[in-house]
Amino acid sequence: MLLQVLESGVLVVVSLIWYGSLWGVIARRKATPVRPAIVTLICAGLLVGIASKLSEFAGGAPLDPLVWLHVFNLMVVFADLGVTARYVRGAHDLRALLRSTDGAQAV
């Protein structure tokens, strides 16, 4: 029981931080690239959490509702990757650099 409470608490806190970060990227329309190792580690953790809950379910235990938060967070991570890729690519768009009003050349 204590482990489930701790797992739920950690997952909720990390989720809220991730949602806030994603919301900030969308609001600012500016993103910095996320290191692939970090995203891979987060995805691996979520997949292990999903696999753990599904293996318990396969063993006869009732399906833990926390599995849906794992699945939702995995989808949010993929959405965050897409949004980040869009705004990082937009920040380095060559046409935008060439249209700058100051006439300075991009380095």
Give structural notes:
The protein has 107 residues and is mainly alpha-helical. The protein has a domain at 34-75. The chain is 76% helix and 0% strand. The chain has 4 helices and no strands. It has helices at residues 2-28, 36-58, 66-91, 94-98. Helix 1 runs parallel beside helix 3 (66-91) and helix 2 packs antiparallel against helix 3 (66-91). The longest helix has 27 residues, at 2-28. It is elongated and about 45 Å long. The chain starts with a helix and ends in a 9-residue tail after the last helix. The mean pLDDT is 80.
Topology:
Elements lengths: L1 H27 L7 H23 L7 H26 L2 H5 L9
Helix pairs in contact: 1-3, 2-3
Keywords: Membrane, Transmembrane, Transmembrane helix
Q: Give the class from helix and strand content and strand pairing.
A: mainly alpha
Oligomer: single chain
Rounded radius of gyration (Å): 19 Å
Summarize the biggest pleated sheet.
none
Proportion of residues in helical segments: over 70%
Kindly, what is the distance between the CA atoms of the first and last residues, rounded to a whole number of angstroms?
A: 57 Å
Mean pLDDT: 80
Order of helices and strands: HHHH
Number of separate helices: 4
Number of distinct beta strands: 0
Report the uncertain regions. none
Mass-distribution shape: elongated
Strand content: under 5%
